[in-house]
Design brief:
By secondary structure, this protein is mainly α. It has six helices and two strands.
């Protein structure tokens, strides 16, 4: 087995390291921490403008089509700097959406994710329910509109995600 990174993966990692070394320096992170900020929107936008946010998404949705392995490599680089970024909740959600959503839904949401304009997140945890595969929260149609009933907690980056 060959565990060497592809040329695209090596270039992606190098670009992430370059941006993160400059923009997620320890002094900058201290300032964010002192302000109580848990999301570096400026850095997230820089990663999006460089193409890194969309790197794991398909080209049809504004990404580079590098897939899950590249997401893991990006997560490693973000984790090494401890930058407060929604990389995993946003991009794992986007990749799942890319796989299961209809074409119209994917076209409506994923290009904005790749550009850093829309942030996705996941709501798996429910009070009193330890099994996310059996949620008590449900979606139902009422008078032609979808309504969500139930409670979720510990939703990462919920304040930054759009309410749709």
């Amino acid at each position: 087995m060959d565990f060497a990174l592809s040329e695209e993966q090596s270039q992606t990692v190098a670009l992430a390291q370059q941006i993160l070394a400059k923009e997620a320096a320890v002094e900058h992170l201290k300032v964010l921490e002192a302000s109580g900020t848990r999301y570096d929107s400026v850095l997230w936008q820089q990663l999006a403008e460089s193409g890194l946010v969309g790197a794991c998404l398909g080209e049809a949705h504004g990404g580079m089509g590098f897939g899950f392995e590249t997401l893991c490599l990006l997560a490693q680089e973000v984790g090494a700097t401890v930058a407060p970024l929604p990389l995993l909740p946003c991009l794992v959600s986007a990749m799942a959406l890319e796989q299961v959503a209809g074409a119209a839904t994917a076209e409506a949401i994923l290009p904005a994710v790749a550009k850093g304009e829309t942030l996705l997140t996941v709501a798996l945890n429910e009070p009193g329910n330890d099994d996310p595969a059996q949620p008590s929260t449900c979606l139902e149609e009422v008078d032609g509109q979808l309504r969500l009933h139930g409670t979720k907690h510990l939703v990462p980056y919920a304040a930054q995600a759009p309410r749709q």
